[in-house]
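Please decode residue identities from the backbone states below.
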């Protein structure tokens, strides 16, 4: 039974995580490493991981991107 639950969960690909990069590691370097992991997962389980990737973004960009024009307008109005 436990194996069936794990197999059913492989089709779910909507996860979010927050992590800190090691000092000196660029976002592009971390993205390359995550791309390699995604590629290995696709090789191991092609039925559930075909064309599934991992996207890294900076937390600041994720939180501010949609609001940036408003924030710039607000800061510029002072």
């Amino acid at each position: 039974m436990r194996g069936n639950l794990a197999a059913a969960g492989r089709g779910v690909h909507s996860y979010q995580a927050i992590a800190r990069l090691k000092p000196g590691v660029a976002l592009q370097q971390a993205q390359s490493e995550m791309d390699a992991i995604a590629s290995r997962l696709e090789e191991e389980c092609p039925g559930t991981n075909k064309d599934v990737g991992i996207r890294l973004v900076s937390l600041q960009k994720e939180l501010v991107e949609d609001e940036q024009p408003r924030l710039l307008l607000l800061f510029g109005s002072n």
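Observation: The chain has one domain: 2-76.
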